């Protein structure tokens, strides 16, 4: 026993980890309630069983991209024609999620935002560990705490900035879906057998372990938990997820098919694999979703070596473009044939509080977009802000006439071809488009480096997909020397032009946000990262993967990252 005068430092508290697991994130008693010995053992079991298949799937992604770079085009796989033409259906839709007419999305932290989303009047809240969340240790762990408490019904928040106002759940709330990260992203704060864990298995594993029983007993009504799965490019990746779900169900002792997941079709290769993806997940499927912003990003990335497929200004690449409309229609037909939901895309607008006319014009754009979706056959759609939900519900519920969805609607019979899905978009490319890409990309990246993954910019709620479009489009234009319109004068996209644009747009951003905020933020660092990405000789797969090392903080401080 130490004496009263003993100056030996006390042992710092640490997480109770199973063999082979090392936690490098900051210790916090609240986090320790999530990172229990048994929960970490569950995650480690997932990692050890599936890391081999994940590595193989990621290598196959790279192999496919090499073929596209050599001139091959994405296509339907002849070897799985029997799946596409077969007469099969996914498991019946759980009654708890039959009605998904409007879903709101947002990060799993901050806590108040989670409560507001669950109380928003939407049918579903997708709590995000992916594009809307910067994956700092603090964000990830607080997000896990928030979701555990949300499922338990005990989540609350006292807002000192609003005079101590207390936020808590209403009697009726949105159903909770959770989106883990994509297969490609590591979790550098959790080492398993000496290597970073697969990020999505940490996200899924911790949430499932702590919340599956309460979720099934409550809002899932015997089913669940429910998930969204991002960034897949091939059905082999869906097969891995199906294996993860089956292992989780066995360990938890719950019925096979309890877990349900909606796959975001947000990569160009995946649109040629929709039947195959649903088939792999057929006992666990909750349909597909049009992740349209990431889909545009993927179009550029897939065709990065194809100068005949340059995108116009990103503002012109909407659902009216033939390849985008074809993608949406094929997704609807595929889902309804397989008896699951076909979810529409994101409405990213946020209320414009100081301009009623501009706000109404923005809402009208949302109404038109959602009317197009519901008429095309979508069963529900996404909103980025609670203020959009009444308008969207009015459009969808007015069209559906009391039905929960339109899965039973007859599908059109006209064929959608491979060429329909890759037809180059039409429109102009401008220096102003280069400027907007740069301004938005740098501001988003600065916020992400500062810990915010969901950022309001120019009356839109932006996440990582927007920054990715900005980055890859700038890269594509520079790589192929695209001719840009500069107010009637044709100029060629070059690194010198981009350098001048970055300098001028950084000055504009500083003027918009103020000198003090600019100085305290990570804008200069973001500018350096963004321009490096735009002029790189080879296009990096993901901006956030390249920048991830800048937000990893190991404890004790100074421990080198193993990335």
From TrEMBL:
<dbReference type="InterPro" id="IPR011076">
    <property type="entry name" value="Malate_synth_sf"/>
</dbReference>
<dbReference type="InterPro" id="IPR006252">
    <property type="entry name" value="Malate_synthA"/>
</dbReference>
<dbReference type="GO" id="GO:0004474">
    <property type="term" value="F:malate synthase activity"/>
</dbReference>
<protein>
    <recommendedName>
        <fullName>Malate synthase</fullName>
        <ecNumber>2.3.3.9</ecNumber>
    </recommendedName>
</protein>
<dbReference type="Pfam" id="PF20659">
    <property type="entry name" value="MS_C"/>
</dbReference>
<keyword id="KW-0576">Peroxisome</keyword>
<dbReference type="GO" id="GO:0006099">
    <property type="term" value="P:tricarboxylic acid cycle"/>
</dbReference>
<dbReference type="Pfam" id="PF01274">
    <property type="entry name" value="MS_TIM-barrel"/>
</dbReference>
<dbReference type="InterPro" id="IPR001465">
    <property type="entry name" value="Malate_synthase_TIM"/>
</dbReference>
<dbReference type="InterPro" id="IPR048355">
    <property type="entry name" value="MS_C"/>
</dbReference>
<keyword id="KW-0808">Transferase</keyword>
<feature type="domain" description="Malate synthase C-terminal">
    <location>
        <begin position="429"/>
        <end position="549"/>
    </location>
</feature>
<feature type="domain" description="Malate synthase N-terminal">
    <location>
        <begin position="19"/>
        <end position="81"/>
    </location>
</feature>
<dbReference type="GO" id="GO:0009514">
    <property type="term" value="C:glyoxysome"/>
</dbReference>
<dbReference type="InterPro" id="IPR019830">
    <property type="entry name" value="Malate_synthase_CS"/>
</dbReference>
<dbReference type="Pfam" id="PF20656">
    <property type="entry name" value="MS_N"/>
</dbReference>
<feature type="domain" description="Malate synthase TIM barrel">
    <location>
        <begin position="175"/>
        <end position="423"/>
    </location>
</feature>
<comment type="pathway">
    <text>Carbohydrate metabolism; glyoxylate cycle; (S)-malate from isocitrate: step 2/2.</text>
</comment>
<dbReference type="InterPro" id="IPR048356">
    <property type="entry name" value="MS_N"/>
</dbReference>
<feature type="active site" description="Proton acceptor">
    <location>
        <position position="179"/>
    </location>
</feature>
<dbReference type="InterPro" id="IPR046363">
    <property type="entry name" value="MS_N_TIM-barrel_dom"/>
</dbReference>
<keyword id="KW-0329">Glyoxylate bypass</keyword>
<comment type="similarity">
    <text>Belongs to the malate synthase family.</text>
</comment>
<keyword id="KW-0330">Glyoxysome</keyword>
<keyword id="KW-0816">Tricarboxylic acid cycle</keyword>
<dbReference type="GO" id="GO:0006097">
    <property type="term" value="P:glyoxylate cycle"/>
</dbReference>
<dbReference type="InterPro" id="IPR044856">
    <property type="entry name" value="Malate_synth_C_sf"/>
</dbReference>
<feature type="active site" description="Proton donor">
    <location>
        <position position="463"/>
    </location>
</feature>
């Amino acid at each position: 026993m130490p004496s009263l005068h003993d100056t030996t430092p006390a042992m710092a508290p640490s997480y109770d980890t199973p063999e082979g697991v090392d936690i490098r994130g900051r210790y916090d008693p609240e986090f320790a309630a999530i990172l229990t010995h048994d929960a970490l053992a569950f995650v480690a079991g997932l990692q050890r069983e599936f890391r081999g298949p994940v590595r193989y799937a990621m290598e196959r992604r790279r192999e496919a991209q090499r073929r596209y770079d050599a001139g091959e085009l994405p296509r339907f796989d002849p070897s799985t024609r029997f799946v596409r033409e077969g007469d099969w259906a996914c498991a019946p839709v759980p009654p708890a999620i039959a009605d998904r007419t409007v879903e709101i999305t947002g990060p799993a932290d901050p806590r108040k935002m989670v409560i507001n989303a669950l109380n928003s009047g939407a049918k579903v809240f997708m709590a995000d560990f992916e594009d809307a969340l910067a994956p700092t240790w603090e964000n990830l762990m607080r997000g896990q705490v928030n979701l555990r408490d949300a499922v338990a019904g005990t989540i609350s928040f006292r807002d000192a900035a609003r005079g101590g106002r207390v936020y808590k759940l209403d009697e009726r709330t949105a159903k909770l879906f959770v989106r883990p990260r994509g297969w490609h992203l590591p979790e550098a704060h959790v080492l398993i057998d000496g290597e970073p864990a697969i990020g999505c298995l940490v996200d899924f594993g911790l949430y499932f372990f702590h919340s599956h029983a309460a979720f099934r007993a409550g809002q899932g009504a015997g089913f669940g938990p429910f998930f969204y799965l991002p960034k897949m490019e091939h059905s082999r990746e869906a097969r891995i997820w199906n294996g993860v779900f089956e292992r989780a169900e066995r360990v938890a002792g719950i019925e096979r098919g309890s877990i349900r997941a909606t796959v975001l079709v947000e990569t160009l290769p995946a649109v040629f694999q929709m039947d195959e993806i649903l088939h792999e997940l057929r006992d666990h499927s909750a349909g597909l979703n049009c992740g349209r912003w990431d889909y545009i990003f993927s179009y550029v990335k897939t065709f990065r070596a194809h100068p005949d497929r340059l995108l116009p200004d990103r503002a012109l690449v909407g659902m009216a473009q033939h390849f985008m409309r074809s993608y949406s229609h094929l997704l609807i037909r595929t889902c309804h044939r397989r008896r699951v939901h076909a979810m529409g895309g994101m409405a990213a607008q946020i209320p414009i509080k100081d301009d009623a006319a501009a706000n109404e014009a923005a809402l009208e754009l949302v109404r038109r977009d959602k009317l197009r979706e519901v008429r095309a056959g979508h069963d529900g759609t996404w909103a980025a802000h609670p203020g959009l939900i009444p308008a969207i519900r009015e459009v969808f519920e007015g069209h559906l006439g009391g039905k929960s969805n339109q899965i039973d609607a007859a599908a059109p019979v006209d064929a959608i071809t491979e060429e329909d899905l890759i037809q180059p978009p039409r429109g102009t490319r401008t220096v102003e488009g280069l400027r907007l890409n740069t301004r938005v990309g740098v501001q988003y990246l600065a916020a992400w480096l500062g810990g915010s993954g969901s950022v309001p910019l120019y009356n839109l709620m932006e996440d990582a997909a927007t920054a990715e479009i900005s980055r890859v489009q700038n890269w594509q234009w520079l790589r192929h020397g695209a001719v840009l319109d500069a107010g009637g004068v044709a100029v060629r996209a070059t690194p010198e032009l981009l350098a001048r644009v970055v300098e001028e747009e950084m000055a504009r951003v500083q003027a918009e946000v103020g000198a003090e905020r600019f100085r305290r933020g990570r804008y200069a660092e973001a500018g350096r990262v963004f321009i490096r990405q735009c002029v790189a000789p080879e296009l990096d797969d993901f901006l956030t993967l390249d920048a991830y090392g800048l937000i990893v903080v190991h404890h004790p401080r100074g421990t080198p990252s193993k990335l």
